[in-house]
Design goal:
This protein is of the alpha/beta class. The protein has helices spanning 8-19, 45-50, 87-101, 148-152, 211-225, 273-289, 294-313, 318-327, 330-338, 344-354, 357-371; strands at residues 2-4, 25-27, 39-42, 58-69, 72-86, 104-106, 109-116, 121-127, 130-136, 138-141, 160-169, 178-182, 192-196, 201-207, 231-238, 247-250, 253-257. It folds into three domains: 2-37 and 87-159 and 240-295, FAD/NAD(P)-binding domain (3-Layer(bba) Sandwich); 62-82 and 160-238, D-Amino Acid Oxidase, Chain A, domain 2 (2-Layer Sandwich); 307-371, no CATH class. It binds flavin-adenine dinucleotide (FAD). Flavin-adenine dinucleotide binds at residues 4-10, 27-30, 38, 40-42, 110-111, 142-144, 148, 163, 165, 233-235, 237, 259-261, 265, 271-273, 276.
Length: 374
């Protein structure tokens, strides 16, 4: 089988499928394993997914969140620390694990298109400037938010939003084990964050809706906070709105999607690493056992809950955020810190049980959403 895309989701899928005894070939358009730096924050679930291989990419641990809005703040201590990982370390580690399991990696090889043939799929690629054709019984598209595999196989395009972050010197008043989040609804329906990657450096980021506005907002925010960007990281990331079926039959062959290509991203926080790995486990189950995977059903529930949270928050105005931060009483904060974001349904119920007035605030957000542009 062939996997298109040698990044987080593709390499994790490759390792799982190859470990199950199938021949796996990964096609990656980049010339080699030198992904640009990207500071990522993930929950502790990452460690359970990767086991010993996780250690190499972890650069810091986060023990507390501080939420800010309109002069108010709330602190949320985390029972299990979040992990800060560096993508330029993660990808080579995943590649090593995939190769160790028997997968073959082809760099400088771009997927161009596919068509059915007698036994499966004809896969057109460009490699080292030359066009070639490969055969595959099944193909996995792990080629990111603008997946060419998805388009070639008839999946509709998915909506994306811009995410930008600047690497800055960690401000003196910010502890290296604390992530800060600012809700500024005039700038973005999402939020700003400051994620320390070491005692010296942090990533200050924003998710926006329009690329140019997002850049203007982050520059203004940096200037307001007196921070200088040392380097920039950014890309468009998918917005999960509904479940993307991961499997399609094309002639006698099968095509699967995983990771950003299938919008497997928690839309409330736009985290896609842990969810992409869960999608990879689901695809590996489907390929190796031809069975519906419990992991995929759980992932689908998880992504839906994040969509519900996002729909609620998306229409919040300043007054709603102020109320939200005020309503986070001690016991609601404790639940937020005890249960991580990759168990969002459990998290939501616990928080609401501890502070029922949040339900009314949430309903208000949903109703405003229905009355607004959508
Ligand atoms: C700045 C930034 C910060 C982020 N922060 C976080 C975070 O804190 N926590 C978190 O969980 N997530 C975060 N994300 C999201 C996360 O990085 C993505 O969800 C994740 O990297 C998606 O992995 P993927 O393997 O599905 O796709 P990608 O990483 O997009 O990989 C796709 C791969 O396919 C290759 N490819 C594309 N087209 C072709 C082709 N035609 N032929 C061959 N190869 C091809 C590409 O070169 C690439 O290697 C962030 C994203 C950005 C941009």
């Amino acid at each position: 089988m062939v996997i298109v895309g040698g990044s987080a989701a593709g390499l994790f899928t490759a390792a799982k499928v190859a470990a199950g005894g199938r021949q796996v070939r990964v096609l990656e358009s980049k010339p080699g394993l030198a992904p640009p730096s990207r500071t990522l924050i993930v929950t502790d679930h990452f460690r359970q997914q990767l086991g010993a291989a996780a250690t190499h990419s972890i650069v810091n641990e986060i023990r507390r969140f501080e939420l800010f809005t309109d002069g108010r703040s709330a602190q949320v201590p985390l029972a299990k620390p979040d992990l800060i990982i560096e993508r330029s370390r993660l990808i080579p580690e995943l590649a090593k694990t995939a190769e160790h399991a028997g997968a073959k990696l082809d760099f400088d090889t771009r997927f161009l298109g596919l068509s059915p043939n007698g036994h499966g799929l004809k896969v057109q690629v460009e490699s080292g400037g030359e066009r070639r054709e490969l055969h595959a019984d099944s193909l996995v598209g792990a080629d990111g938010a603008t997946s060419r595999v998805a388009r070639a196989s008839g999946w509709p395009p998915i909506e994306t939003v811009p995410l930008m972050q600047a690497i800055v010197r960690l401000p003196k008043d910010c502890a290296p084990d604390t992530t800060r989040v600012w809700f500024v609804p005039d700038d973005t329906p999402y939020f700003y964050w400051l994620v320390p990657e070491s005692p010296e450096r942090a990533a200050l980021g924003i998710i926006g809706e329009d690329g140019r506005d997002t850049k203007r907002c982050i520059e203004r925010f940096l200037a307001k906070k007196g921070m200088e960007p040392l380097e920039w990281q950014g890309a468009r990331i998918p917005v999960y709105k509904k479940w993307v079926p991961i499997r399609r039959k094309i002639g006698n062959g099968e095509v699967f999607l995983v990771g950003d290509a299938a919008a497997q991203v928690k839309v409330s926080t736009v985290g896609g690493i842990v969810t992409g790995f869960r999608g990879a486990i689901g695809v590996a189950d489907a390929i190796l056992r031809n069975s519906a995977s419990e992991e995929l059903s759980a992932l689908r529930r998880e992504l839906r809950t994040h969509w519900l949270i996002r729909r609620t928050l998306h229409h919040f105005q300043q007054g709603d955020y102020s109320q939200l931060v005020d309503l986070l009483n001690a016991s609601a904060r404790q639940s937020l810190g005890e249960i991580h974001r990759d168990e969002s349904t459990k998290l939501l119920w616990q928080v609401v049980r501890k502070q029922p007035r949040l339900v009314l605030l949430g309903l208000r957000g949903l109703l405003m959403g229905n009355g607004g542009k959508g």
